[in-house]
Give the backbone structure.
Amino acid sequence: MIENKTSKLFRGIAILMVIASHYAGWMYTESFNESLRVWISTWGVYGVDIFFLLSGYGLVKSNQKSGIDKGFVIKRVMNSYVPYILIAGFLAVLDKHIDSAGAFIKLLIGYDYWFMCVLFAFYIMFMLFYRFGGRAKEILLTLGIIGFSYWLYIKPEFQDFWFLSNGAFLLGVYGATLEDKFGDKLKSVIIKSNLAFISFAVMVICAFWHVFGGALAAHLCASIMFTLMTMGLCVQFKGEGFVLPTLGTYSLYVYLVHTRLFWKFVAYKESWSYFKGAVIAGLLTLVFAVVLGFLIEFCLGKVTKLLIGKKK
């Protein structure tokens, strides 16, 4: 239903949304239209919606092929956790941030990179419940994510974005599960019902809801509607082109390095405008992340094959 290149293309869109939202959030308000800046700063949550949707979908499709075996676990560790530890660990050592046991633990769980922390929790729950949950695996995963999200909600140290997009992961899981049961019939229903358009319309209603009150509920509803809209678009369009799919392939690396490079180049020369520094930082981030990602994944790919013991 969602082809591999389509997934990469939408991941490319998602990472650009995340970068744009962070740049807008860090922008000096006097140098930019404030309403536009605030609007762009909300894009990141929707970018995470896309990532979680495709992650949930991809995990189920991989499980349907091979099950939760040694290779499944190793690939997730080598594709996500090891690159994170290499880059985040290097930056933490460079900045001398690992000055206590607590700081080291935060590094291990991805606390300072909240997206990684939540994603790792999803991966662990998925592998445990799909390996040992039997027929109740979907229910157990759903309850686990709801419970985890509620825990994040009641803890004052976690902001709303720690849990707003968590439903997108479940939608990806159930989308892949229903596809396995109904095949092309599900794809036909999504296209004929114009899921993308309907979801967009409801999302607009949620925006007005937010204006007139009930902000958290409106955000949650908008996140779900945006995720459904994305699913509808993924089904209807094939991934084409080179730039966006490439960025999607190495989106993890873009996410991990973009903050560091942004502040490095925005403050590089006092004579540079904020906009000039941001553009240079953004372009360098994309190029550097792709090259770095290619080199790391080339090396880790060799290690992964050795650990699994056979070619997949």
